[in-house]
Amino acid sequence: MIHPGQWHPVDGLVLEPNAMSAVTMADENVVVAAGPGAGKTELLAQRADFLLRTGQCPYPRRILAVSFKVDAARNLRERVRRRSGSRFASRFDSFTFHAFAKRVIDNYRPALTGSNALNPDYRIDPNDRIQGEQITFKDLVPLALEIIETNAYARGGIRQTYSHVFLDEVQDCTEQQYRLIKAAFSRTPAVLTAVGDTKQRIMAWAGALDGVMRTFANDFSARPLPLYQNFRSAPRLRRMQNRMIARMDPAAVSPDRELMGDDGVIEVLGFDTEHDEAKALAELIDGWLREGMPPSEIAVLVRRQPHLVAAALGSALARCGIAFRNEQDSQDLTAEPAAALVFNFIRVIADDRQPEAYADLMRAAARPSAPEDEATRFDSRLKRMVGNARAGVRGPGFQAEDSIAWRTLVHEFLNLVSRPVLTALSAGYQQGTWLDDVIEHALDAFSGELSLDGDPVQALRRLSEADAVRFLTIHKCKGLEFEKVVVLGVEEELFWGNPTAAISEFFVAVSRAKHHLVLTHTKHRNRPEGITTRWDERRTPHQRFLDFAHED
User: Fold this and answer.
1) Which stretch of DSSP H or E encloses residue 519?
2) C-alpha span between 432 and 435 (Å, rounded)
3) Which of 156, 177, 265, 381 would you call most buried, defined as having the most Cβ atoms within 10 angstroms of its Cβ?
4) Which residues of the chain, if any, have pLDDT below 70?
5) pLDDT, position 202
6) DSSP characters for 116-128?
7) pTM score, whole prediction
8) In what order do the strands lie in the sheet with 191-196?
């Protein structure tokens, strides 16, 4: 433990003055308004390090971080572990709102009564609710809110656990989510740090509060601290973003002297059809990969329906042998520790060159709390089982294209790891059927990819964040960053509706790029087979948005 005055940002990072103030705040609530690339995640990770190393968060108290997305919660958790080490990071709980609500329900479930009472082994279903037995994801926050608002014991337990609370992307907080935080921590000694960006508030369709950052500042007497610097993007891209900020929020425009430099690339590419677009982009992406660009640093962003709008590009990439994945459904899955364990096991036994996957596999399956001799025996059994599985899949009788054969090996491995070790991977696995659901979802996803070409290595590449080009909606890309970003279909037929929401979403998309931004549009997009909703085949470039790409 060190004196607060002796603390310095970890890894020699330099923070702008307002960021340093937010990181080292002792007993005052703060709301940080920051643009994309200003380092909101890094600010929270540095603040966690400051609080833990200086004893501002005294043992055994903990820090609670609540994020809007699974990816954001996971990224923040990993950032804190890298910055502060495992010992301090063990007192840092990073959840989504749904995961935090589920933790509250699991810990204080008997407080739910009447029609909301739940059995100990209740399940979570995407759509259907069965009284006492099954709830939906939409029920999690309201039920947790009911517990906190009506049960003093639950409120006291939560408040005794956490001395500090972080709210990430607070601008997207819905009314019930905000009530959950307010009910748990309003008028308590807990110190809250909220970060967000009003220019990224693209969740109005989900009921996001208008001006929630201002509401938070008023309710929690929080000091507002704006961050202006975009440390992610190259100067040429920052100047484009600045031109957009001048339209959205003139008071937040950065001075020209801070955006000098010629680094960065912006391209606007127009095509006659989506097939011309797909062919050109596949060749462009193939060139990036041949130059050594990691696939994980390439993203294709679509405002809506990437499975339709980007279908031609997906086919073109497949013909080039380039792995890609549509993250409309798979992004949350890859954040699940149990799914990662399943994929790493298949990766290790199917491919000879996976040292990182092997290390992750052994670390996740290990039994560090067991007596040394027992842990050693288990380690030997685990290595022997993995070795036998690797030999088996290389044998003449193994049918690599058969998903059932892989399922059998995976379940043999999971049985050896044991249920207690698996449930310890995540707090959510300790109740109900969520662990089994995640494992089954992972196996289904692998089976689906395997059915495309019968190659398990390629199937895993398409499921991997590291080995595949990623197709994302703009909603899914928030909080992420990539060296190369393609915004597909900058057309009036895609960026329609409320002008403020449309330009905000476009701003989120272009600000994901660190060095190279490509904007495309076509004159014609064929109606996908089986689509009955509106689909305009004739397309019009969204000239007002495309004009932001041009220097004055």
Assistant:
1) strand 513-524
2) 8
3) 177
4) 200-210, 328-332, 334, 465, 552
5) 59
6) G---TT-EEESS-
7) 0.71
8) 92-96, 62-67, 162-167, 191-196, 30-34, 223-227
